[in-house]
Amino acid sequence: MTRSVILAALVMTIAFPASAGAWDFWTWLSDFSGPGPFSGTFFALTGTVCRQGDRWKPSPIAKDSEAHEEVIVCIYFDRESFHDDADPSRGYPDLRIRANDIGASLRVRDWLDVGAGMGWLSITDTTSDTTRSRFVMSPVRVVVRPLLLFLPEKGRHRSFGILSFYWKDIYVPGVIRGRDFGQKPPSDLNEFRASHDVVHAYGLTLDLTALTGLIRH
C-alpha cells in the first residue's frame, strides 16, 4: 500500500505540474520570483557511485554486497537542461538553463536516495548567445527508483535503477536580478530582483552508472 501511494504521488507530480502544457516534457523547473517556469528539454542525467563494503561501486543495490548494509553513502552528479520561451511583456529573451549539481546522498533503500549538494546554473540568452553562471545549493534531493521499489530483492538488478523520479530544491544565495536572465524590462515595469530565491526541479532522470550492470553481465 505504501509503495503504491509513493508511486501515485510521483506520477501526479510529473503529470500535473503547476503550469499547463508541462505534460509534453520530461522534467520541470518552477519559476523564479521573476522568469519561468521552465520546461525540460530531455530527461535529467545523473551518475552515482556508492561506498559499499570496502569499495566504491557504480549505483549498487544491496545484494551487490554480502554485507547487505542497510544504508550506504553515495556521491552523485546531476545534469539538467531547461528552456523558457521569450516573454516580451516582461522583457525576457528566449532562455536556456543548464543545472549542474554534485553532492552526497544516503541510499536508504535500493529504491530511495536522500541527499544534498551544490553546483551552478548556466543561464543562456539564446538570442544574444550570452551565458551567465550562478552558484546554487540543493539542500534537499530525493530520488525514487520505481522498478526497484516494486520488485522483491531477489529479483532486483542494479540496471533496473536506470530510470528514476527525482525532486530537488534549488537555492540561489544572495541577490538575483533580471539582468542575470538578460531581462530588458519595458518602461512600465521594474527589473526583477529577489533575494535568496528557491525553485524546485523535478521529473524523470536517467542514472547512467546503472548501465554498468548491463555491460558487465
Written overview of the protein:
The structure is a single chain. This protein has 217 residues and is mainly beta. It has one domain (2-216). 11% of the residues lie in helices and 49% in strands. It has three helices and ten strands. The protein has helices at residues 2-15, 146-150, 212-216, and strands spanning 27-29, 38-40, 44-52, 55-58, 72-84, 95-109, 112-125, 130-144, 163-177, 193-207. Strands 1, 2, 3, 4, 5, 6, 7, 8, 9 and 10 form a ten-stranded mixed β-sheet that branches. Strand 1 and strand 2 form a beta hairpin. The relative contact order is 0.21. The model is unreliable at 4-25 (pLDDT under 50).
Which short descriptors sum up this protein?
mainly beta, 10 strands
